User: Which sequence fits this backbone?
């Protein structure tokens, strides 16, 4: 028989999160017709995140936010342990955040529609093109920040995969400082490939911003290693070890 938390996930959490998504997604989409800045929609995203974390029983501790001065745009680069990382970051990073995501997500009901209409960056990975940099410049002009997962996928066991250089080429081209963020514990809330969530504690460590001024796109790979090292330094030793298989995959695709 499935464990208690499987039944709780299927018959309570999934229906509850579906209701949050439909209600707040509808409010967000409606607001986008009168508020093209997406600021009200971002409040909806933060409320959605809070409700998901509260209902699931996720307790988040964040340290280091004081290292990041308000009043400018950043690229927040985080490791990726769980699908819960998205609500964790939306709730804990008190900045006007937009996410860099796959273009295919824009077709998803409510969540995708919200992303497409409220200033998030949806990228076709096969042909990102110059439109990506145009969108980044628009975000900078509006004072928004972006968060990305440079590993490109969630970790199965919590180990840190190599950070892809392409993510940081965008930051270098846009002149945005990069803020390394380390998430620890979210994989125990919901593991990749498992339809079960559990209450738990998640720790978010925000590290010092790393400037990109003066760097060239050719230095993106070296810069990616620097950001990865910063994230590694804030994770427990077992989580910080890069995954060999993912490292080989990244080297082939970078």
Assistant:
């Amino acid at each position: 028989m499935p464990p208690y938390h499987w039944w709780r996930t299927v018959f309570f959490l999934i229906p509850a999160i579906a209701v949050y998504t439909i209600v707040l997604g509808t409010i967000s989409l409606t607001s986008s017709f009168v508020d093209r800045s997406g600021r009200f929609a971002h409040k909806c995203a933060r409320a959605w995140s809070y409700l998901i974390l509260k209902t699931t029983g996720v307790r988040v501790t964040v340290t280091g936010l004081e290292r990041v001065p308000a009043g400018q745009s950043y690229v927040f680069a985080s490791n990726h342990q769980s699908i819960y990382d998205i609500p964790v970051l939306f709730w804990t990073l008190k900045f006007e955040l937009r996410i860099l995501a796959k273009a295919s997500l824009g077709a998803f009901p409510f969540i995708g529609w919200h992303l497409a209409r409220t200033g998030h960056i949806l990228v076709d990975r096969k042909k990102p093109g110059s439109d990506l940099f145009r969108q980044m410049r628009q975000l900078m002009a509006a004072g928004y920040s972006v968060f990305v997962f440079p590993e490109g996928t969630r970790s199965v066991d919590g180990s840190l995969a190599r950070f892809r250089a392409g993510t940081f080429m965008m930051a270098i081209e846009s002149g945005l400082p990069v803020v390394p963020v380390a998430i620890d514990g979210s994989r125990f809330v919901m593991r990749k490939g498992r339809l079960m969530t559990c209450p738990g504690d998640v720790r978010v460590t925000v590290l010092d911003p790393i400037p990109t001024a003066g760097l060239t796109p050719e230095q993106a790979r070296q810069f990616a290693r620097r950001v990865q090292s910063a994230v590694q330094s804030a994770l427990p030793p077992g989580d910080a070890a890069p995954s060999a298989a993912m490292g080989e995959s990244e080297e082939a695709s970078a």
